[in-house]
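INFO  loader      accepted 1 record
INFO  loader      residues=799
INFO  predictor   begin
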Amino acid sequence: MISFQYLRRQAHSNMLLFARQFRPTASFRFKQGVLSAPCFLVLFFLGVSTTLALRQLPLLDWRFVGVLLLVPLLLSVRFWFIRPLLSLSLGFFWAVMHFSDHGEAMLPREYQNVDFVVIGEVVGLPQQRGADIKFELKINRIASSLPLSQLIGRKIQLSCYRCPKTIKADQRWQFTVRLKRPYGYASWGAFDYQKYQFRHQLVARGYVRESSEAQLLGTLGRSVNGWRERLREQLEAHIEPGVGRSMILALALGDKSSFSATQRQTLQTSGVAHLMAISGLHVGLVFMFTSQLFAWVLWPFARVFIRVPRQSLVMWPAMAAAIMYSALAGFAVSTQRALIMLLVYVLCRLLVRRLSLTQVLLRAIAVLMLLDPFSVLDTGFWLSCGAVWVIAISTQPHANVSLIWLQPKLWIGMMPITSLFFGQVSLVSPMVNLVLVPVFCVVLIPLTLIAICLLSIGAESLAAWSLGVLAIVYQQIYQGLEWVASLALARAFTPPLAIWHWLLVGLLIGASYLRSWCAPWLAAALVLAIIFNPSFGESNKLRVVLLDVGQGLALVVESDDQVLVYDVGPKYSSGFSTADAVLLPYLRYRGITAIDTLIISHADMDHIGGLGDLLEAFPVHRTYTSRLDKVPASQPCEAGHSWSMGATQLRFLSPDAGTPVGSNNRSCVLMLEHAGVRVLLTGDIEKQVERYLFRKPDSDLSADIMLVPHQGSKTSSTREFVDAVDPQLALVAAGYLNHYGHPHATVLERYYERQVSVMSTIESGSILLEIDNDDWRVSSYRQLAQRFWHYQKVSNRAR
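INFO  predictor   done
INFO  writer      dumping tokens
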């Protein structure tokens, strides 16, 4: 009987054999007359990567680009030093060509929020969320007279509420849709959803109008996505709902849509999220186990196949199994890279060539960039390639490649990348992965795939029993991960890394390649520098940030290491919270660990929605609100109450006993004053309260900057109130193409008539106001962090 220890020893020896097959060669030769293949690939990849720094894509005449590249191509025959420039240019223009083509196919602005009929096929696996289903549709035809031919053959993202029929992959539908251009929240620390949509080549997003009129036109022929859809239905039919089923779906089909936000956070905090994403580890395991299986099966028949190379008999079936598993995952980017690497490995073995793992990685990246340059925008691409590179450094000749030491090396090597993309680092990851990676690799993943095979060949009873047992095991593992993630020191939130952090990373890479004695010390210094990354507050400066939370309000004030939060943004019936998506990531981005003062202006959902998420994530020392019944452990925000935050003075102007009734009119109105500069925060007050305030005998409403009341509604911003405040700058917090029409054109005109500058989160994203030494400066996220995939939003009044 084969023991678990035997399987583990076999897997370990096979992994070491795989790593040592790639022995280093003279990989990077860059001298007169020679530009080696690895050097060319590196420069090509760098050329593609440089596009990430572009704020806008250049407008190019491709005939001119062809001539531009032809000249250095001809000169490179004689002048060797032009070849690196040519490699960089080829990568750059290759990426720009694809990105520009996608940008030109975007939905024109004038056809946003316009109803029209589309016919298309469902691609990918639809995601069901209660009564709402989200899916991607590849447009085949537009059944209207609108000039939208550039959308044909492109993908759009749709949601359908209470669709009368089940929407499945490979079906052909006719929908009446209302679309917008791709958009997302633009704020520091928040997930860049516009980048995600650009990477997945979506030209618009929207929803199905009149879902009862949606027509199913037919089902396409059998395809990979249809196969995945049928398998998912079978799995859901045989496994009880729960996290165990979610983990099986993730490992079998690469479908992580059934994980809740809490479950995703638990997996990330415990450091095992990579095990739930089908990548090189999983595809490599399938390749390794299949090759070993064929080696065992064919061993008794060695004499029969004496004329056929043994490696061909073993590797090509293993490669086919890896391709099938990747197809189950929908050929995600991580599986594409893994397949390319495996193909290079197989060819090298069959051609009796030896390449270093770094060289194989470079070839895989170059092929991936040629096939899909959009991959460079994918976070998973950088994570998977970074992990392989760390393994390549760790498996150099004479290096310690024990699995016990590989996990800490991976943790340290990946720490800068995870900190850059996620703003946090799992501190328990090395120990958790040291236990779970062998268990998943040797036992759970093979058994899960065997159960899938049983289900596919019709052995449903045995498959159902196996899947039920596996679901229970996964459930128990998740409960253990929940306990680990709940530990106080399970993770560390990391503010943005400074230049000196990246210099330290460069020194560590160099020391690791040279196997210098100082490498362990540099690694320890890097870990301490990232985990204990100090965020230096600026004394005597006031920072006010109006966050982009769509149609709602959330604002953060920082002064002398004290923090005030004014409103927490909306939360929707689907469970999506802008506090989770925008407010909390911004606070962690700034290295904030506690809230000194929380003000909930009033109880409307677009202002109070994220309260529970904030209270769960951060300690709050004191809270003010106009609705004590809605906010626990709070004090009333009464007119006349004042306090200070360092050099900043704060005072409530409303409400008081004479304030008109109504939810909006009971908003907490707050005046901030710092170094002689005044900022007025108005909540959702309407014209009744505005008149009440400027008519009070002791009223002093004058301010340099004001928050436009009620997102620019027609019910607010009376001429008399704007005159009384007399601001230089007015800030608007409103959602892109919101159905209220905020900010209203007549309201904006009142500010423009008085020569008041207006900035809106619609066009600017989050807005930063800095006040210091009797002076103030304003900037925005889109101004400071604009990239070519952030297609600038136009104001709602342009409709």
